[in-house]
Design brief:
The chain is α+β, with helices and mostly antiparallel strands and 313 residues long. Helices cover 32% and strands 35% of the residues. It has 2 domains: 122 residues, no CATH class; 119 residues, Jelly Rolls. The longest helix is centred in the N-terminal third of the chain and has 66 residues. It is elongated and about 110 Å long.
Length: 313
């Protein structure tokens, strides 16, 4: 009996050893598979990290371009002194950029030799990029810029960032406006632009300023810049009440100091029937621009799709 008891006790040890061995077999297989695929796992992990970094860099670059006016904010007046490019129009009244509204002049300068390196300074030399601007729901390319070297077609992994923006291909900019001016019978009403526009001696040397009037039934008004009348009530009444006008602002009506000073657009005694309205815009254009080249369809910003592609070189 004692001998049998000893044998039974020993059997328990053998069974335990067999169970442990059987349990180790799948664990060993798993470890073997992991070891065999460790290279692929590390590669995929590294690839995920790189893509995450690329996405962050692309998004940061896009935000810098579209949500800031750059450093300095008016770098387009002296491109050689630019520190960081930003494309958003700058509102001098509120002293902040108008996010996602692109400055035509800044966009034009970015297409020069300055452009590629300026973008490269933001995103980093290890990345390639391609920027394209198209109308909403269209593939027509309005504006584009790309880095040299590896193209996005030959890149292994490409990140794409899209944003809706406002932009005009017109060579000037709307610098002040009065929209939906009118009144419902009663006493004629005066309007002043909510944003004045600054000019200096330097501005008047390189820009002309025009007033654009788009009338939708207003019967009478007069148009003023500062204390000067650009269009009188009699001039206005001499046309059909649905006419549009493009009028140059004489230079001596505008401020011409060494430092920029504000100018004010005013509509006086706006008279209309109910629901009749008018819009007035001041546009800044390169010196010598013909009035025939200043049309509402070109002057007013339109919606576009801004697409930023980035990849590792």
């Amino acid at each position: 009996m004692e001998t049998l008891k000893i044998f039974n006790d020993d059997s328990k040890g053998v069974a335990l050893s067999l169970d442990l061995l059987l349990a180790l077999i799948p664990l060993t297989l798993v470890l073997g598979l992991v070891a065999a695929n460790m290279g692929n796992i590390m590669y995929e992990t590294q690839d995920t990290i790189y893509r995450s970094s690329l996405e962050r860099v692309a998004a940061d670059t896009t935000n810098t371009l579209l949500k800031t006016s750059g450093d300095p904010y008016n770098w387009e007046t002296n491109p050689s002194q630019v520190n960081v490019v930003g494309l958003a129009q700058y509102d001098p009244t509120n002293e902040k950029p108008i996010e996602y509204t692109l400055s035509t002049k800044k966009m034009a300068l970015l297409k020069s030799s300055l452009g590629e390196q300026a973008i490269q300074n933001i995103i980093g030399d290890q990345y390639g990029f391609y920027i394209v601007l198209t109308p909403i729901n269209s593939d027509e390319i309005i504006w584009n810029l790309s880095s040299t070297g590896t193209s996005k077609e030959s890149a292994k992994d490409v990140v794409k960032i899209e944003r809706n923006v406002l932009y005009t291909e017109f060579s000037g900019e709307v610098v002040s406006s009065i929209k939906n001016a009118g009144h419902d019978y009663g006493r004629p009403k005066d309007y002043e632009a909510d944003k004045p526009f600054p000019t200096s001696q330097y501005d008047l040397e390189i820009y002309d300023y025009y007033i654009l009037i788009f009338n939708r039934g207003v019967t009478s008004t007069s148009v003023w810049i500062n204390q000067y009348e650009v269009m009188s009530e009699n001039d206005f009444k001499g046309h059909d009440k649905y006419s549009n006008w493009t009028m140059i602002i004489p230079e001596d009506y505008l401020k011409d100091g060494i430092n920029p000073e504000d100018n004010y657009l005013t509509l006086k005694k706006v008279a209309s029937n109910p629901n009749a309205r008018m819009d007035a815009y001041v546009v800044q254009v390169p010196k010598g621009t013909s009035p025939d080249d200043i049309e509402s369809g070109d002057v007013l910003p339109k919606s576009y799709l801004f697409q930023f592609y980035a990849w590792t070189k």
